[in-house]
Write a structure and sequence with these properties.
This protein is mainly β. The chain contains 4 helices and 15 strands.
Length: 362
């Protein structure tokens, strides 16, 4: 029974050791910058030793490495600060940044192994995409000179997931097409009229801050006001009272929108917005109101390299529209737009994950 138990323990120990083998993960350790030559040599040698002891393979060619470790020294107060950064070579971005305060290099003997071990624990996570390890910061040093204090370790990989970069662009360009139910409400005794028409447009937006976008659009639509019973005769007497009137006018609408940006999860984008618009008639059947207001909601879903966008909007003219040919009818126009389109972002607002530092012990 004891032999079986020993064999079982040895077997699972071997499995555990094998599962922790990270030899396939290659690391390039950059020369330490700043500080004295003696300190540079000391920390470069010890960082390499700790990385190798953790099971990673150190290579001399940066282009062949999966990750790189860079270190720098800088004076602070009555001592120095060692800053260590783990970066992804292939993605060209920093992953984890940590700091170690010391007054003499000998004071780093106990803290440096822990610092490097915790930092390198992120490398297998990035390769295998397993859940990140739970990170617990070491207790602060209570000595008078505060030597050996270490920054809280921050797992930056989860700070902003890599696959949500589509939400963080400076410029967005898109196009859309959809239906546009319209209500025409004449100022006289004529009946209100509902019509349905289509619209198509393009848009351009600037993501000025994380929660706000400024957007303008160019929308083409067909205004189709048809009144079945016109009570009044035309001003020039050419059209009798009771005649039907139909006024079809191609319109070019230019909205200016301010959009709030809500980013739930990694695949969705919600943008409530409001703004004003101006309308230009392309023919002379009717004269539209030059100004109106609108409010709506964009719902975006990540789709490949861009965003599939569904938009619902309410538009209301601030002034009456006027028919041009006989000048008999003034009417208020209310428009509901329901569209679908595709939008693409350009120019990253940030490179990968923002670099964050943990709070330092005082």
């Amino acid at each position: 029974m004891k032999k079986l138990l020993c064999v079982t323990i040895c077997f699972f120990s071997a499995v555990l050791v094998f599962s922790q083998n990270r030899a396939d993960t290659t690391i390039f350790v950059e020369p330490v910058t700043g500080g004295s030559r003696a300190d540079q040599s000391f920390f470069e040698e010890n960082v390499k030793m700790e990385v190798s002891a953790a099971g990673y393979t150190i290579i001399d060619d940066l282009l062949d490495a999966i990750y790189s470790v860079s270190s720098s020294l800088a004076p602070e107060d009555d001592g120095n600060v060692l800053s260590i950064t783990l970066s992804s070579v292939r993605e060209g971005r920093e992953l984890v940044a940590q700091e170690l305060f010391y007054t003499r290099v000998e004071e780093s003997y106990e803290q440096l192994p822990f610092l490097v071990w915790q930092m390198m624990a992120n490398a297998p996570f990035l390769v295998s995409e397993a859940p990140p390890p739970v990170v617990i910061a070491p207790p602060s040093d209570t000595s008078e000179n505060n030597s050996g204090r270490i920054a809280n370790i921050v797992n930056l990989v989860n700070a902003v997931p890599d696959d949500d970069s589509w939400k963080h662009k400076w410029i967005y360009l898109g196009g859309k097409i959809g239906l546009s139910p319209r209500l025409y409400s004449p100022s006289g005794d004529d009946f209100d009229v509902w019509t349905f028409t289509g619209e198509a447009g393009v848009d351009a937006g600037i993501h000025v801050v994380n929660f706000l976008t400024i957007q303008t659009e160019a929308i083409f639509s067909l205004d189709n006001a048809e009144f079945s019973s016109l009570k009044a005769a035309s001003a020039d007497g050419t059209v009798a009272a009771g005649a039907k009137g139909k006024y079809t006018t191609p319109l070019f609408t230019i909205p200016f929108l301010v959009k709030g940006v809500i980013k739930p999860g990694t695949s969705y984008l919600v943008e409530p917005y409001g703004g004003i618009y101006t309308t230009i008639a392309l023919t002379e059947d009717s004269k539209p109101s030059p100004l109106g207001w609108c409010a709506g909601l964009d719902f975006g879903i990540k789709s490949g390299a861009g965003i599939l966008v569904f938009d619902m909007r309410f538009n209301m003219d601030l002034l009456n529209n006027t028919t041009v040919k006989d000048k008999r009818v003034e009417y208020q126009r209310y428009v509901i737009s329901v569209t679908a389109g595709f939008r693409t972002g350009f120019m990253n607002r940030r490179q990968g994950v923002n670099r964050l530092r943990g709070a330092r012990f005082n």
